[in-house]
Amino acid sequence: MRLLRLFCPQKDPNYIRKKYNIPDTMGWNIQLNKDGLVATSKDLPGLVTNANNPEELLEMMNDAVLEYFDVPKLDSDYVFDRLNLDGQGEVYLKQAEKKRQYA
User: What is the pTM of this model?
Assistant: First the structure.
């Protein structure tokens, strides 16, 4: 757990989405290439991120969305706790799986 979260607990992702006008769901194009996975947002122009595996990609997508909407690091580490890979299943954010109490 990040030391920051001991002093500044994660705020409820629903609250963060509402406060910063982040859509509840987002469409992504995900491609596999020789360097890993690359995700581009269908809804937010210019938003691109990459990772080595699906779990890391979900973390990177959250980070990219939070940066895009200028959400302070003190408020949130994530706004989406799962990634639905059409026909391939879902990936869940590990830190969100733990029972959390939001600030």
Answer: 0.87
